[in-house]
Structure formats: C-alpha cells, structure tokens
Amino acid sequence: xxxxxxxxxxxxxxxxxxxxxxxxxxxxxxxxxxxxxxxxxxxxxxxxxxxxxxxxxxxxxxxxxxxxxxxxxxxxxxxxxxxxxxxxxxxxxxxxxxxxxxxxxxxxxxxxxxxxxxxxxxxxxxxxxxxxxxxxxxxxxxxxxxxxxxxxxxxxxxxxxxxxxxxxxxxxxxxxxxxxxxxxxxxxxxxxxxxxxxxxxxxxxxxxxxxxxxxxxxxxxxxxxxxxxxxxxxxxxxxxxxxxxxxxxxxxxxxxxxxxxxxxxxxxxxxxxxxxxxxxxxxxxxxxxxxxxxxxxxxxxxxxxxxxxxxxxxxxxxxxxxxxxxxxxxxxxxxxxxxxxxxxxxxxxxxxxxxxxxxxxxxxxxxxxxxxxxxxxxxxxxxxxxxxxxxxxxxxxxxxxxxxxxxxxxxxxxxxxxxxxxxxxxxxxxxxxxxxxx
Amino acid sequence: xxxxxxxxxxxxxxxxxxxxxxxxxxxxxxxxxxxxxxxxxxxxxxxxxxxxxxxxxxxxxxxxxxxxxxxxxxxxxxxxxxxxxxxxxxxxxxxxxxxxxxxxxxxxxxxxxxxxxxxxxxxxxxxxxxxxxxxxxxxxxxxxxxxxxxxxxxxxxxxxxxxxxxxxxxxxxxxxxxxxxxxxxxxxxxxxxxxxxxxxxxxxxxxxxxxxxxxxxxxxxxxxxxxxxxxxxxxxxxxxxxxxxxxxxxxxxxxxxxxxxxxxxxxxxxxxxxxxxxxxxxxxxxxx
Lengths: 438, 288
Fold this sequence. Notes:
The complex is a heterodimer of chains A (438) and B (288). Chain A has a domain at 1-233.
C-alpha cells in the first residue's frame, strides 16, 4: 500500500517556511488573514466520505503525494500558451505559470481608465485598497479545509477591478498553466474580481497543462458584482488527466446585478468545484451553467449553492454531464430561498448522459424554500443517448461516430449556446468534435 | 371523381411505361424476421425493378412496418431466414448507414424529434457522409444551400424549417413533409415510405404525394407501405401487394387497391386459406 501523508500536518509545517519567505510582508494586514486561516486550518480535518459534503467524492488518493510550491518560474514559450488561445477573439491575456504571474507571457490591451488587470501579488505589494477591502470577504473559510489552506498561503493570483461605470469590451482571458515536470507541485491561485456599479466585464479562467503529470491546483475565486454590474464568468478546466483540481468560487451580488457563470470541465483525475452565489439585494439575476465531459477513471464534482436572500431575484442553473468509461460525476446543487425572498424565480436542472455501463453519476438537486410566493423548479435526469434518434441519423447515411457526436453536440448545445462569446462557443464545439468524432 | 381518377391513371400508365427500366433493384427471397422472439415476417418474396412503384397494403399488424424496418436495418428486428439482394448486394449484411449510402431511404412512420440538431446540420452531414462513401467531394456551403433551397420547394417547405431542430415541435404533416424533403435531398435509388400518408390532411397528402411523384425516374423505385387506399389516388402504383400475417397473400395491379377499398381487408382474411395463397413474389402483370 502507498504511503499516506498527513496532509494537514504537512501544510502546517510548510507554513513556517512560507512565512519566512515573505520577509517584510509579515507585518501587513493581509498577513493577519493568512495567520487566522492557518489557525482555522489546524482545527479542520482532511475531508473524507464520512463528511456529507464529500459523500460521493473520495479524495484520499491526494494524500499519497507531498505537493510543494514551485521554486522558480519555469521557462515557458509563448507558443505553448498560444495553443490555448481562442481564434478570432480580441482579449486581454494574463498568464500564470505554476501559480506565479508571468508578465512576459501576458498581454493587456486597451483597458478603460481606472480598470486594473494583473497579478494580485503586485496589488498586495502596492497596498491596493480594493484588495484590502475585498480579499477573503466572500470565500469564508471557517469550514472549508481547502479554502483555509488557500487563505493561509495566499501569494499570487489574478486581480481584476472595474471601477463604477466602466465597461471592459474585450474578455479577459486568464491562463493558469502548470508545467510540473516530475515535481509534484501545488498551485494555489487566489483570484479576486471586483466589478463596480454599472460596470461590465467578461472573465475567462482557464486551467491548462500539456503534460500528463500529477499536481494539485487549489484555486479560490472571489467575485463581487456591485449594483447594476454585469459580470460574465467562464471557467475552462483542462488540467492534466492526473492532476487534482479543487476550486471554490464565491460571488456576492448587489442590487440589479447580473452574474453568469459557465463551468466547462474536461480535465483532472479528480476535480471538485464549490460554487456559490448570494443575492444581497433585490432585482438580481444569476446563471450557473456547467458542462462536464469526462472519461477513463476521472471524477468530476460540482457543489453549488445559490442563496436567494432577497426578493425579486432570479437564478438559472443547468449542469450537463457526458460520462465515458469508468468516470464518475457528482452534482449537488442547492437553491436556498430564504423567508424574505418573495417573488423568487429559480430554475435548476442537471442532465447526464452515460456513454458506458461503468460510468456513474450521483446527482442531488436540492431546493429549500422558506418563502411562500416563489416560482421554483428543479430536476435531474440520467440516461443514455437516444437510440431512436441515432437510428434515424444512421438511416440518413450518417455513421456511428458522427451520429454519436451529433447527438452529443445537440445535448450540450443549450449550455454552449448560453455562452455569450462566439469564439469560446467555437472552441467548445471543437473540443466535442475532437473527443467524439475522430 | 372516379372518372377523373381513372383518366389520370391512364395518362400516368403511359408515362410509367416510358419510365420503366428493366434493372432489378431489390429482390426479397423468403424473408423471415422476429421481434422479441415473435415471428412477424413469415416468408416474404418480392421483386422490385428500377422505375417501378410498389404498394404494400394490409391490415394492422400484418407486418408492413416490420418489413420497412428490416429493409432499413433496424436492430431490434432479427432476420431468421431468407435474403435480400439490393443492386446485387446482400443488403442484410450492410449497416443502416451503409444501406443509406448505397441509396436506400426510409421515410419513417413516426419521424424522431432530435432537439439541438438542425435540419440543415443533419442534411449537410448526411449528404457529405454519403458523398464521402461514394468517393465524391464534399459539397461546399453555397452548393449545399442552393440544393436545400431547390428541394424545399418540392414539398413547399418554408426556409425557416431549415434552421429548426429536426422534427421538434413539428405537426404531423410537417414531419411527413420533412421526410420527403430529406428524401429529395438524398435522392435515393430505393425509397420506402412507411405509412407516410397516415394522419395527413388532404392538402398535406397532396404535397407529399406530389413530391414523391416528382422524384420518380426510370432509375429509382419506390415502395409505398400503407394501410389506406387513399394515398394511391395520388401516387399511382405499378403493383399492389397485400400483406397478411407476415406473408404476401395477393399481388396485382393498381386495381387491387380499388378492390381493397371497396371490400376492405376482410375478404382477404376469409380467402386466406392455405390452398388459395399465391406463391409469394409472383407478380401479376397489369392488364392494359
């Protein structure tokens, strides 16, 4: 049997080392956040399947590896990064290699005055007041093992700030590229996106690797959408098939704001996403859509929470999965409609297609309603591709593979078509074609 | 009404004579097929030449749709005996997609709704897969679109249909028109229409039949599977076969259809005694 590492003790020990590396920063306000996080971390236990929130997701294999932070910035050519860019898309590009910002590979263009896009490490160093006021505020860590771990080791990540009234026309494409060679690396990007009143921005978080190595990404993203802001968030997870990807995204929405999220996930051995949005005021809208396509022995897990704390808000959640081989999917979506939240409109749906007899899906769509004047629906389906439809396509001369690919494109189409950036839709269609129609 | 119909038939008889080719397209020999262990087809014999229209009629449950499905290659049907030659090839050995690529087309009794796949997308993929199989170059978008435009007129299909999902939310008549539209685009050598007339109002029926008639050439053939004689007022068959209890019990010219209309299927059922049953597959020549 493989040796098990006590991950908790391992990182507690690492913290001293990390603290020393920070030099003068130790006295800063932010460092208090790290210190309180590590003390929280000490109180928590590594999640096991005995925890309700981890019932179907066994991450004990993570304890076989002693992950450590990348020592130096690896030399990465822009050709590698170019492979992951989207055709025909004007964008600003932020690149992180092994969790560390790379100014050489990044390219920030044409931002309206006052908009800040860059490395959060830089912003922390400059005592940026937006960072100071927002970091750690939305992703509360008390009960989350991996969030406390992130907070304790905050170092770098992406930072976007759009001041009141500013519209960022071109999407901001943020690439997290891992080149771990043979070392087992841990990346802990800590991202903060703040959209001011009446502002608008589109952000693409893109996790990639072109190697098949073992590493751990523990990402935390915090998003704040102020009054009437429009924030479009897309996360594309294309990590190494042997990697662990653990991610948290927390969104706070003010009055009449509009937030949309798309999670597209194809990578990692085990990936776990904890997404939550919270309506702090009336009139807001939120969309959480997802598409996961996994195979072999991959595991994908999405835990989402939409908190209708205030009236007159609407949420739309639709997660779709396509499972091959012995892969396993988990969806646990919770929609909470609090007593105050009258006139809530909430839709939640999870549909999964199993392409093999050995694939497994565990789904749990949950609605908790405490208000009495609301319109809510939720549901889940797990099934196979429609044989009748496939025969119909074949009877028109379309072969087995092309017919399967067509039906999968069709299945995924409502999630893909809700993505607003055409170049990204094309990229996703391309992924499906590559996957199912060689 | 009857007079005009007879007149129309006479005209079309002459027309048919000109169109008739001699090439045998399809030969079904002693075909037996099971569904879930039950024998539905019990020895079908049928020969279809290029340029011909055959109608297969029969009461419900006689095996008409099973025959159509077996020819198209539906997996749930197990062929236990017999063979089917199409253009000299063993049809039963071909996959459903290869049958289509070889020029066999089934217009479904119940066309399937496929949300998320547009009619254009379906047809473009189908046309190009067929062309690839035949070693032809893929059609470019411009040529393909003009092909669609031309063929959609044939069944009076609105251009808007092209971008809609396949059969999704279509009325019964629209679905059947869509089948004939697909047939027009794919231009099959052997078309099998499985109860394409059922549930159609007279206008839709006329449009569908008109489409089928316009697609007729001396090189292709059509098998019309139907319960009702009505469709045969519009698509004039060269031969009519009556299927009963999994066998062709009577074959004749189009007048057989009128006889069936007049007398219903009961006389067939009554007559269907072992001694009376004709040798399947022997087709009665049409008396001019």
